[in-house]
Amino acid sequence: MADFDPTYAKEQILNKTDEELVLIANSTSDEYRQEVIDYAKEELQKRGTVNISQEKAKEIIEQREEHFKEMIGEKEKGLPIKWLWFYTYIRLPLTLIWSLISIFFIPDLTERVISLIIIIPFGILSILVFIGIHKRRIWGWKLNWVLIAVESILFVFSRSGTGSPMGYTPLAALIWVALNVMYFSRRRILFS
């Protein structure tokens, strides 16, 4: 059995929520050491939180866990939202950053200026979509359709001179649009 560190145990108890302390205080010595149970009871008395039932504590903890799962992108309103989370917090910012950085790799000044003229409105649109989707606003959901369309068009035209087969690039853009249309259409109810 590992050594028991009472100082560490007390520090851990101080970091627990009232609900977690209620569960520890009402647990058996099979689950926690008796000292930890006593520390939890002592801390509850100090906080003046002795009226929470064990059932209520479990309910609050389950609600918090469900909220946390939603925040990390597991589910919202019964729908998986991992792609939405990735799309909003990873893909949109990285696409915007890469677009801005890529301007500096264009050797011709005229092409660089033209790219900048295209990227500035694209960047503003991306930022608006990010804000709208983050806040779960219907206008963000609608602007996202514009962003997907603009991205697809830019993708096709930016790749047309790179030597990739012309049939492949529009097909890739079409697949991108189709997958996002299916995904975001089903998640309309997440936005108000």
Polypeptide structure, described:
With 192 residues, the chain is mainly α. The protein has 2 domains: 6-69, no CATH class; 73-190, no CATH class. The chain has 8 helices and 2 strands, in the order H-H-H-H-E-E-H-H-H-H. The chain has helices spanning 6-14, 18-25, 34-47, 54-71, 82-102, 109-134, 138-159, 168-186; strands at residues 75-76, 79-80. It has a two-stranded antiparallel sheet. The protein is elongated. The termini are far apart.
Short synopsis of the structure:
With 192 residues, the chain is mainly alpha-helical. The protein contains eight helices and two strands, in the order H-H-H-H-E-E-H-H-H-H. The chain has two domains: 6-69, no CATH class; 73-190, no CATH class.
| Mean model confidence by pLDDT | 80
In the predicted model, the low-confidence regions spanning at least 5 consecutive residues are: 163-167
Q: Quaternary arrangement of the chains shown?
A: single chain
Total strand segments = 2
The proportion of residues forming helix, as a percent range, comes to over 70%
Order of helices and strands: HHHHEEHHHH
User: How many structural domains are formed by the residues?
Assistant: 2
Shape: elongated
- Give the strand order of the largest sheet, numbering strands 1, 2, ... along the chain: 1-2
Largest sheet: 2 strands, antiparallel
Q: Give Rg in angstroms.
A: 26 Å
